[in-house]
Automatic annotation (TrEMBL):
The keyword Nucleus does not apply. Residues 10-46 form the F-box domain. Part of a SCF (SKP1-cullin-F-box) ubiquitin-protein ligase complex. Interacts with SKP1 and CUL1. Interacts with SNAI1; the interaction requires the phosphorylation of the two serine residues in the substrate destruction motif D-S-G-X(2,3,4)-S. GO terms for cellular component: cytoplasm; SCF ubiquitin ligase complex. It is found in: Cytoplasm. InterPro entries: F-box-like_dom_sf, F-box_dom, FBXL14_F-box, FBXL15_LRR, Leu-rich_rpt, Leu-rich_rpt_Cys-con_subtyp, LRR_dom_sf. It comes from Seriola lalandi dorsalis. This is F-box/LRR-repeat protein 14. Residues 118-190, 200-278 form the F-box/LRR-repeat protein 15-like leucin rich repeat domain.
Length: 414
């Protein structure tokens, strides 16, 4: 007796269809009635985010999404009222409006008019017309929100953060990238420093403050006192923080990842403060901090030796600093030292000898390294990614000159 795929139970077809990409999931629904029914099983669409252009009325759109159990939506272009989405998907869990430049406080206000307990993730990045008024609506009606993306919403002020601190007590991730009006006062609200007005977002685990130029070390004091559950903190391009602020961060025992990229006032002294505290960091980025030198690597080896990822691009480090660090960094898997122009083949040999767990290394713009140093690096047993970038070498030299084999790491350029 011959068997055919059409003989499979719908449950088996649904399992097979669940492995297809989104476009193919839609295509199999057009093959026949049996496949259509199987493809509409909710397990096929579990975790899928629908990407929509809202241009004209489509009565079948949201019923179709609900039938398939889709609860995540990204709006690619918004020419209809946002309330059209909220009314059509009352059990929505994730709403991505990133880049919807025409979204206004008025439009958002008409959409959020009652509690939406299912909504956990809201992305308003680059919705530049959004102000504190919208944050008031969000704080009032989206009490269960866990992730809020506000990157590039440049009209947000400390008042908006007060509203967030008042209403969004379950928030775990908040992105305030380039919110230029946010200052220490706003971070104080989030950290529960103004309990008489707002409890704060004390469950925060991830906070992105990249390019918030008004922040000073006082913000870090607030964070260290109030946000005890914080695991990831991004302070890149925050020119107002200094070495003194690192003292506050050095005792945040749950902090796993710290980004200080292009923080111009962070020096070896700041790294010393971090290393002398009780941190258990797994990731540290101090790239383009031009006051970071070899002494920082010694401090890292003494107190931050558990790091799995370390980025030092364009820092003033040399082979001597590498020598002072590598013997203690047994868990390091990613090392970014691109544009560290004082690194030579000697430094690469030290890395190859001691950092045997490395899976990726960035040597972009390291102009003093030669084929000899690269040959040592490519012998690292776990290496998968080697980024050379601006380092000049022809394709034939990379393959033939280094004698690379099929199972050796690829040399990737950006």
């Amino acid at each position: 007796m011959e068997t055919h795929i059409s003989c499979l139970f719908p449950e088996i077809l649904a399992i097979i269809f669940s492995y297809l990409d989104v476009k193919d999931k839609g295509r199999v629904a057009q093959v026949c009635a049996a496949w259509r029914d199987a493809s509409y099983h909710k397990s096929v669409w579990r975790g899928v985010e629908a990407k929509l252009h809202l241009r004209r009325a489509n009565p079948s759109l949201f019923p179709s999404l609900q039938t398939r159990g889709i609860k995540k939506v990204q709006i690619l272009s918004l020419r209809r009222s946002l309330s059209y989405v909220i009314q059509g998907m009352p059990h929505i869990e994730s709403l991505n409006l990133c880049g919807c430049f025409n979204l206004t406080d008025n439009g958002l206000g008409h959409a959020f008019v009652q509690d939406i307990p299912s909504l956990r993730v809201l992305n308003l990045s680059l919705c530049k017309q959004i102000t504190d008024s919208s944050l008031g609506r969000i704080a009032q009606y989206l009490k269960n929100l866990e992730v809020l993306e506000l990157g590039g919403c440049s009209n947000i002020t400390n008042t908006g953060l007060l509203l967030i601190a008042w209403g969004l007590h379950r928030l775990k991730s908040l992105n305030l990238r380039s919110c230029r009006h946010v200052s220490d006062v706003g971070i104080g609200h989030l950290s529960g420093m103004t309990r008489s007005a707002a409890e704060g977002c004390l469950s925060l685990e991830k906070l992105t403050l990249q390019d918030c130029q008004k922040l000073t070390d006082l913000s870090l004091k607030h964070v260290s006192k109030g946000l005890n559950k914080l695991k990831v903190l991004n302070l890149s391009f925050c020119g107002g923080i200094s070495d003194a602020g690192m003292i506050h961060l050095s005792h945040m025992t749950h902090l796993c990842s710290l980004n200080l990229r292009s923080c111009d006032n962070i020096s070896d002294t700041g790294i010393m403060h971090l290393a002398m505290g009780s941190l258990r960091l797994s990731g540290l980025d101090v790239s383009f901090c031009d006051k970071i030198g070899d002494q920082s690597l010694a401090y890292i080896a003494q107190g931050l030796y558990q790091l799995k990822s370390l980025s030092l691009c364009s820092c003033h480090i040399s082979d001597d600093g590498i020598n002072r660090m590598v013997r203690q960094m047994h868990e390091l898997k990613t090392l970014n030292i691109g544009q560290c122009v004082r690194i030579t083949d000697k430094g690469l040999e030290l890395i190859a000898d001691h950092l045997t767990q490395l899976t990726g290394i960035d040597l972009y713009g390291c102009t003093k390294i030669t084929k000899r140093g690269l040959e040592r690096i490519t012998q690292l047993p776990c290496l998968k990614v080697l980024n050379l970038g601006l380092w000049q070498m022809t394709e034939s030299e990379r393959v033939k000159g280094l004698g690379m084999k099929r199972n050796e790491p690829s040399l990737r350029e950006v």
